[in-house]
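Entry:
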Amino acid sequence: MMDENRIGSKIVHCALTVHRNLGPGLLESAYTACLAYELLEAGLEVFTEHPLPVVYKDVKLNCGYRLDLWVNRKVIIEIKAVKELEDVHLAQIITYLKLTENKLGYLINFNVSRIKHGIKRVANGL
């Protein structure tokens, strides 16, 4: 079993590869598909657009939440292609981490000239 930090290192490497090949300016869906491909090639298990129900009073409610990428069921990746990340994007991934009880997530904005400025590591203190 690979731990979250090792998975995270592979995620960052794969994001760098995708950005190096595509650059900024594409739709989120293109970056999501290419990053999923790179992660699979790196030997990771990847779920794309995975539905995420909300549990309310012991009832699972399908409210339309979807994880962009869920890696090894341990690390969540939320993909963006925006001018700049906003607080609402951070709140989104924190909510996903809480709902899945995962400890680690990455908020990745591919619409930057240097990808290192677009990667935000997010930890859930549970």
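Residues 4-123 form one domain.
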